[in-house]
Each structure stands twice: as C-alpha cells, then as structure tokens.
Design goal:
heterotrimer; A alpha/beta; B mainly alpha; C mainly alpha; C: 13 helices; binds adenosine-5'-triphosphate; binds iron/sulfur cluster; binds magnesium ion
C-alpha cells in the first residue's frame, strides 16, 4: 500500500541487536538501575516501536545503545551489535572512541527527545547540518546550499531557514530540523526518541511521513520511541514494550493490538483513550511505577499485576518466543502454567478484555 | 492497513506556513533596521546622560569635601617654608580664578562642565604647576592602559584556556584540586601579588627590575633597546595583574563550560560523531565566548580604574602613581581629572559593548 | 533540601579565617609578650634594627618597636575596621537589595537599581583616597564608615537577585495573601532564607573594605588606623627589602593573603552548600 515496503531486501536480517543492556546511574548513595537487562532486535529496514510508560527507561536505553550515557551513568553490561551491510557485526559498546565516532550518523543517527535545546544556540542551521557531513568525510564542495535546502524541504521546511538561528524557529520546526539532520547521511538506523511528542497534528503527520520516506529512500531501519501507543499504531511494523528497564513484550503491531500477551501490555492498551467507537470506560494500571533504585524482586510487574502468583514474587520470568517470533517475558506463558493462563484469559473475557482500576468515564 | 492510510498525505498547509515569503522577509528586515537605529539612539542618549550625571556628581563631591584648593595651596606653602604663609587677597583671588572658584556655584558648575566636558580642560595641576592637569593625565594614560589592557587580554586568554581544561577534565583528580586553589586565590588583591612578586623576583632572585617603566639610563625612543627595556620592566607589574585576574577568568570559564557540557546540544554534537576538536571549538568555546567577551569588555573598561597600587608599588608612571602623587599634594584638578577619566572609560566601554554585542551574539536582537 | 554534609571549602575557609580572627582578638594579651607593658607602638624601648631573636621573633624596627607586636596590632586593627565597614556595607546592601527585590519591577526597584549600578561603576578607590587625604585626621570609625559606604553595591545586587527568586515562590505570596504586612513578610518569610547569602555579602564586603583599607595605608593615608598596610608602607619607605628586614613586608602580605583566601573560601563554600542550583547533576528527559 505504501511503496517503501516493496523495497525491502532482506527483511528478517537484523541490523541492530541489543542484548541484556544495562544502564546504571549512581547518586545519592544508591544505584539507579534505570535500564537493566533490556534486549531487542531491530531488523533491516523495519520500523520498530519502543513503547512504555513515561520513566520506564526508553530514552536511557536509547542513550545506552548510542553509547551516549554521561557520568554519573555507566553501562555495566550488555552488547549492542551493529551489522553493517558488508562485513562482520561490531559491538558498539566495545569499540574504540574513534571507531564509534565514525559509526555515528553514517550507521546510527539519532533524533533526541526534547528538541528545544538540542541545537547549538549560536550556530546557524546550515552550519549544524554541515558539520555532521564534514565530520564524516563528505567533501566540502559536495555540501551545496541546494543539497542542504532540499534536506530541509524534505521535512517541509523552507530553505530560507538555513541562515536562521535555532531561537528563531518554533519547537516543531526545530524537531523537523533534527529529523532532517538525522537523514543527512542516509544512515542504516535512525533512532528517534519521541519525535512527535508535543507537536500539533499536522506537524506530527509531517514527521511520520518523513520517517517513512527515509526508509523508502535510504533503506534505513527505524527505532521509534514513543509513550503514545496510538502513534505506534500509525507507524510501526513491530512494537517492543518496555517496563521497569526491561523489554517485556515484542511483536507485530497488529498482534500487539489484537492479542497482547503480557499483562502490562494489556493494561497499557486498556488505558489508551480511543478516539472512535462507542463511549468506553478508561482503565488505568493499578499502583505506581517502581523506582529504578529498588526494583521489585521476581517479576518487576508483580506488585501491580492482577494475575501475579507465588512464582512471580521470587523468580524473574525469562523471555520466550513463539513460532511467529512474538516475544514475552511472563511466567503465565510457560508451558507448566497453562492452567493459570486459561484462567487469566477467562477473566479478561469477563471484563471485556480489560483489567485495572476504572479511571473515569471517557467522553466521546 | 487502514490506520496507516492517513500518513502519506503530507499536509500542504503546514509546509506553507513555515516558508516565509521573500517579501515578508524584506519587510521584516526594514522594520528591524529601523528598530536597531532606535536602540542605538537610545543607548547613545543614555550614555550622554550618564556622563553628565557622573560629571555632576564628581563636581558636587569635590565641592563637598572639606577645605578648598586654596587651603591646599596654603598647606603646601606651609610644608615648603615650615611656617604659615599669610596669603594676600590678591593671591587668593588669583588662585580662585585659576581654579575656577570665582562666581557663585552655578557659574562654577557651568564653567566646569564646559571646560571639562567640552574642552577636556581640567585646570592647572599643583604637582607640576603650571602644567595642565589633563596633560599629566594624558601622559600617564598610555602606560596604564598599555599595561593593564595587555594584562587583561593575556589573563583573559589564559583563563579561557585554563577554564576549558579544568571543565573538560573535571572528572579527574587534578582538576578539582586546581579549581579549588584557583577559587581560593581569585580574590587576592593585585597589590599583594605585586608585593610578593617584587620580593621574590626583584630582591631574592634579582631577575627583574623592580621599579619604573624603562631603564633610567634610556630616553624614550622608538628602538629595540628602549622597547626591550619597557617590556622587561612591564613583566613584574604585568604578572601581578595577570596572576589573580587569570584565576578569576579560569573559574568563570570553567563554570560556563561545565554548564555547557550538561546541555543537550553537546550530547547531540557527540551523537553526530563530530571530532572532539570541532565540539570544543564550535560548540563549547563559541557558547562560552559570548559571556566572556562581555566580561572582557567590562574589564577593559576598568583599564584606568583597575590597579592604582600596582602602578605605585612598581613606581610605574601610570595613573596610579599620578594619583598617589596628587594625593600627597592635595592636587584637586589632577584628582578630579583621574576620577572623571576613570568614569568615562567605564561608561564608554559599556556603551561600546552594548552596541557591539548584538553583532557577535545572534540571540540578542 | 540542605545537606548535612559540610562543604570542605567552607570548613577550610572557616578554619583559616577563624585562626586569624582568634590571633587578632588576643592581640591585647599576646603583644605585651614581646613589646612589654608599654604596648607595641611605644618608641625606643628596644634597640633599633635588631634581627630576629628569641625576645623579638621578627626583630625590631628603626624605632626599636617589636615587629611581631606591631604586626599583631596591625592585624587586629585591619580586622576591626574591616568588620565594622563590612557590617555597615552589608547592612546598606541588605536594605537596598531587599527593598529593590521586594518591589521588583516597580519604580522603586528601578531607581535603586540605577543607583546600585552607578555605584558599581564609580572609581571607589580614588574617591575614598581623596576623602582620606583631604579630611585631616580621619578617625578610625570615620574611616570604617567611609569604607562601608563604598562597599555595599555588590551585596545589594546579589541580595536583590535572591529576593526576586524567593519572592516568586509560593509561600511568600501565601504570607502576603494572609494579610501580613511588608515588614512581616520580609522578616518572617524572606530573611530566614537569606542567611547564607548575607554571609556571602558580609564576607565580600569585609574583603572589599580590608582591601581598600590596606591599600590606603600603603599609600600613606588613614594613618590613625594602624593596619597591616601601614607596616607595608613603612617597609616600602624604609626600603626594608634591601636591608634584610623583608619580614616587615612579607609577614603582613602573607597574613593578608591567608585572610583573603579564607574569606573567599567561606564565600564559595556557602554558595555551594546552600545554593541548590549548583548541586547534583542535570538529568535529561
Ligand atoms: N542522571 C540520572 N540519575 C538518576 N536517575 C536518572 C538519571 N537520568 C534518568 N534517570 C531516571 O531514569 C528513569 C528513566 O528515564 P528515561 O528518560 O529513560 O525515561 P523515558 O522512558 O524516556 O520517559 P519519557 O517517556 O518521559 O521520556 C527515570 O526514572 C529517571 O528518573
Ligand atoms: S510474571 Fe507474573 S507478575 Fe509478571 S506479568 Fe506475568 S503474571 Fe504478572
Ligand atoms: Mg524519554
């Protein structure tokens, strides 16, 4: 239906594999294990969504993948394997500083969350597009004004803005400058952290369209981070759901929306306001998100999970994959717990597919 | 698939909204030019007003202090002859006229303003009568401005580099220690540094001359020997200025750079895979420079007003030495002139800064 | 949130400054050990120009005065004048800064700010020197008052900024809404939160005042206050560096450097300890 998919060459080959990534912060006498054993696999030219409540560690995970974690943070363990188009895979976390520098922007481009301060306030937009190109060996005579201008045009911005300074741009315009910038070198992977958050509907559309075109034109894969499941529904191929510093479920977006497996995902979907259909009740997941300083033992979701049982309180579930490649980390899906799983399904059917506390009557 | 269908239709309206038509840009430019002109005029007006206010306050100040130039003159005679000298009314009248003290206060004020402000004439000096006070000041000025100005520039550059390093290596063991030392020493007055340096280098080590601006055997000439001597004589006074003010610049630069290093745009620059040199120059330094250029301008404004005692301690023929000489002989006109020239330089530097900063900093309209 | 952990710099500054203050305060008891009962300034009691020895650890000067005793006296006077002037300067700074900040944005604020800015621009040292030169026999208190009057502007500016910030916080508005008068709001809500900054203001004012006092003494003004600068001035005029009596200059210079280091460390430490803006690291969203 939309052209780019036809261009898929080797759809299942991974371009980025994150294995057991941990990002810890030290402060106030404790360790904040913000990301703690998170794994995911990004396939070539796919759009993978990363979802989860605010504060679950999405941005931190992204910074970990890009090796941008600043002191007092550190990456105590994990692997981030990047598979170039040719040649063997490299572990970004084990590369030397200069090697990482060269991988950045050509292989892995980044659209940071919070565009307001990501641009250098005292440099013109043109300079900030140019410096990334020169840093990666694009000869100066190849960086023409028209090339920079068309880069801006590709995100719907006027080339006039090349001579502008960031403070002269609105938040949405800056966000789009960041996106244009990330596509400047046709990277293998674009990691976009909440690129649509805070934009109006038109600007959101524009951003999503640009990201899709990037995939079409540069064959880039996209890791798309958003706490907003509705945006994922519009854009991504697969979704990874993150909870308490770990990826708890990963699957095709249609499957996640129709048959989510993990109780947290089910809760998340239940708390999603729907814009169409009959007036429905909005539910919230009971309890509060745990603190990275002190994750619950066992399954980290157990204090809030209505289906938790003994095992959940002591043993952390391992991630298992079904035949279709749908991943979930929950004890219920272990073969020995099939009775409990049936009970859960029965209960969900009774509740209309939802659980949790009723938040409010949702108008519409 | 249905939910994806909406995406590819790029909304044309928002595209239009963001591309500002050329005519609109041109109109905006004209409006801005007019606004800039207005700002310049207003700044200049403010400048003139402050100068006037400063001159008036100085006039009042010198009128309010007890005694008068005549008393000072009598005092001087007394010191000279060891006894009181009765001044005839003619002498008094002569001095009154010479010092602009005839007529009522308003006439005096009017004469003062026209003389000092318009003609730069501050009346005769005492310490080198009848040489005009302004003459003495303008002879001393180049020495002070040269010494202090270059000291400020040198310490500014050194401080910028040191601050950058202290911030860049802030997670090492050495940098915080050095920072604390710099913090501790930054407020030590220039003259204490001067005394310390004199003691060390001019008396213990005998490396450098302790007095004057050039060797007494030389007459001011534009040749290598003379310039060499000037440079050699300026090392100790210059260093005593540089040492402490350099620490100040290092600390403020460090603080700036540390805060810049926490900024999102620096993380973004790193994510782009820029080389460290590029990040330092285009991101860190360029952002730290602007506030520091403001600071430099303000410091240069204090060039005349900065370090009287250093000039005195080194017997350096600048404003400071002149000030001390004028003080010991109660030389009204020279003192008044020094105060006025100090204020004028500060205000002028501020004005220039106000007018030039927008050319450097894109964020100021 | 205030940390119970004391900043090392603050501690170091307090120890250095504290030591100097204790020594200065015990001058009346200490000095007679070396100067005898007649006091440090009595002339001709000992042999002149005696080199350091047990009875005179720093030697004696031309007039047979004990140099150590003189140094102690100079230190004490410097501190006394500095403290008086500093307190006066801080007091004026508080009044101006508070009023200005409390009425932030109004005409009152505008006027006070103009005066403060102007005060920071005027060349204070020549003006103080002119006053000290023309007013014969300036008493110690008068000198302190003059120094104080010239050292308030920095404190006023800092305090104004702080009050503006505190004022924007909710509890001040609440106090005002509950009908408390201006004075009550200042006294009960603002002042208690300002103590660290008053400390900073006081330390800066004292540094400014001592700096000017010693400077004046070095050029031979304000002689009624026998300060460390007076000793330096005496040393310079006698050329003591060349005749092997450098301690007359070097010891006061070292004490002053220690004093400035101590006071400035207190300043920095107070700022770090009580300024939440400087604490912790920034976290990104
Ligand atoms: N420097 C730090 N020190 C300690 N904790 C930190 C630090 N930076 C982030 N955190 C914690 O990490 C957690 C996750 O932050 P992160 O920004 O990754 O969340 P997120 O999923 O991206 O949320 P959002 O949707 O709001 O962007 C938060 O609880 C935050 O408090
Ligand atoms: S493992 Fe247990 S607590 Fe965790 S989500 Fe599954 S059922 Fe709930
Ligand atoms: Mg985030």
């Amino acid at each position: 239906m939309w052209g780019g998919v036809d261009g898929l060459t080797e759809p299942d080959k991974p371009v980025l594999e994150v294995e057991d990534l941990a990002v810890h912060y030290h402060g106030a006498g404790t360790t904040f294990r913000v990301v703690d054993g998170a794994s995911l696999r990004l396939r070539r030219e796919e759009i993978l969504g990363l979802a989860g409540e605010s504060g679950c560690g999405k941005s931190t995970m992204v910074e970990g993948i890009l090796r941008l974690v600043q002191a007092p943070g550190e990456i105590p363990s994990g692997r981030v394997l990047f598979h170039p188009r040719t040649g063997p895979a490299v572990d970004i976390l084990r590369l030397g500083a200069e090697e990482v520098r060269r991988l950045r922007w050509t292989a892995l481009a980044y659209v940071p969350q919070g565009s307001m301060n990501s641009l250098n306030p005292v440099a013109r937009i043109a300079d900030q597009l140019t410096d990334a190109m020169t840093a990666h060996g694009v000869p100066t005579d190849k960086i023409t004004l028209s090339r920079l201008g068309s880069l801006l045009a590709s995100v719907g911005l006027s080339p006039d803005l090349l001579s502008a300074y960031p403070h002269q741009l609105s938040g949405g315009m800056r966000q789009r400058v960041l996106i244009a910038n990330s596509l400047a070198l046709g990277p293998d992977v674009v990691i976009a952290d909440e690129p649509t958050t805070g934009l109006d509907v038109n600007a959101q559309r524009m951003v999503l369209e640009t990201l899709l075109r990037a995939r079409r034109e540069h064959h880039s894969a996209l890791l798309f981070v958003s706490h907003d499941l509705a945006v994922h529904a519009e854009l991504v191929d697969r979704v990874a759901v993150m909870y308490a510093g770990q990826v708890v479920e990963l699957g095709e977006v249609e499957e996640i929306f129709s048959t989510a497996l993990h109780p947290y995902t089910i809760g998340l979907l239940a708390s999603m306001p729907r814009m169409e259909g009959p007036r429905k009740r909005l539910f919230g997941i009971p309890g509060l998100a745990p603190s990275p300083a002190n994750w619950p033992v066992g399954c980290r979701f157990h204090p809030r999970c209505p289906f938790a049982f003994d095992r959940c309180r002591s043993e952390s579930p391992v991630s298992r994959e079904d035949a279709s490649g749908h991943l979930v980390a929950c004890h219920l899906y272990e073969p020995t717990e099939s009775k409990r799983l049936d009970a859960m399904r029965a209960r969900l059917t009774l509740d209309g597919g939802r659980f949790g506390t009723r938040l409010q009557d949702h108008p519409v | 698939m249905e939910r994806r269908g909406a995406v590819p239709h790029a909304p044309q309206e928002s595209q239009l909204a963001d591309s500002v038509p050329n005519t609109a840009l041109r109109a905006a430019r004209i409006v801005r030019r007019r606004r800039v002109l207005m700002v310049v005029v207003r700044r200049l007006g403010g400048y003139v007003l402050s100068i006037w206010a400063a001159f008036t306050v100085t006039f009042i100040f010198f009128h309010l202090i007890p005694g008068s130039p005549i008393d000072a003159y009598a005092q001087q005679m007394e010191n000279q002859f060891g006894q009181q000298v009765p001044l005839s009314s003619q002498v008094i009248a002569f001095w009154n006229k010479e010092f602009g003290l005839n007529g009522n206060v308003f006439e005096q004020y009017y004469r003062y303003l026209t003389n000092t402000l318009l003609r730069g004439n501050m009346g005769p000096s005492f310490i080198a009568f009848p040489e005009p006070a302004s003459e003495l000041i303008f002879h001393a000025l180049p020495w002070t401005v040269g010494l202090f100005g270059s000291a400020v520039l040198i310490s500014w550059i050194m401080g910028l580099v040191a601050g950058l390093l202290l911030a860049w290596f802030k997670d090492t063991v050495v940098a915080p220690t050095l920072t604390t030392l710099a913090l501790a020493g930054a407020q030590i007055p220039y003259y204490l540094a001067a005394l310390g340096l004199v003691f060390l280098f001019a008396f213990i080590l005998l490396w450098l001359p302790q007095q004057g601006a050039y060797a007494a055997s030389l007459t001011p000439h534009f040749d290598f020997r003379f310039i060499g001597s000037v440079l050699k004589h300026s090392i100790l006074p210059g260093c005593s200025l540089v040492i402490t003010s350099f620490l100040g610049w290092a600390i403020s630069t460090r603080a700036l750079v540390v805060s810049i290093m926490g900024e999102d745009f620096l993380l973004y620059a790193e994510a782009k895979g820029l080389r460290t040199g590029t990040i330092l120059r285009h991101y860190v330094l360029r952002n730290a420079m602007l506030p520091q250029i403001t600071g430099l301008g303000i410091s240069l404004g204090f060039a005349v007003n900065g370090a009287y005692l250093v000039s005195y301690i080194f017997n350096y023929p600048g404003i400071g030495l002149l000030l001390v000489n004028a003080l010991t002989q109660l030389d009204y006109n020279v003192l008044e002139g020094i105060v006025l020239i100090s204020i004028v330089t500060v205000l002028t530097a501020n004005l220039l800064l106000d007018l030039c900063l927008p050319l450097v900093d894109p964020r100021i309209e | 949130m205030r940390s119970t952990h004391w900043d090392g710099r603050l501690l170091a500054g307090m120890v250095i400054t504290g030591l100097i203050v204790v020594v200065a305060a015990s001058e009346p008891w200490l000095a007679p050990f070396w100067s005898g009962a007649a006091g440090p300034t009595a002339v001709g009691i000992f042999a002149s120009w005696s080199h350091p020895q047990w009875a005179h650890p720093l030697g004696t000067n031309q007039f047979g005065q004990d140099i150590l005793a003189l140094t102690l006296l100079g230190l004490r006077n410097s501190l006394v004048v500095g403290l008086q002037a500093g307190i006066l300067g801080t007091f004026i700074g508080i009044c101006v800064g508070f009023t200005s900040g409390y009425f932030g944005g109004t005409v009152v604020d505008e006027a006070l700010r103009t005066v403060t800015d102007a005060w920071l621009v005027i060349p204070s040292f020549p003006l103080i020197a002119v006053l000290a030169a023309f007013v014969r026999n300036l008493s110690v208190t008068e000198l302190a008052i003059i120094l104080g009057i010239f050292s308030w502007a920095g404190a006023a500016r800092a305090i104004r900024a702080q009050v503006l910030m505190l004022r924007s916080m909710a509890y001040v508005d609440m106090a005002r809404l509950s009908g408390a008068g201006h004075i009550a709001v200042i006294g009960q809500e603002l002042l208690p939160n300002m103590y660290p900054y008053l400390g900073v203001g006081l330390a800066s004012s004292i540094m400014g005042a001592i700096g000017s006092l010693v400077g004046l003494s070095i050029i031979g003004l304000g002689q009624n206050a026998f300060s460390l600068g007076t000793l330096i001035q005496y040393g310079l005029s006698e050329g003591v560096l060349s005749i092997g009596f450098s301690q007359i200059i070097v010891v006061p210079v070292l004490i002053l450097i220690a004093l400035f280091v101590g006071l400035n460390l207190i300043n920095v430490g107070l700022d770090v300890q009580f300024n939440p803006r400087l604490k912790g690291s920034k976290s990104r969203g």
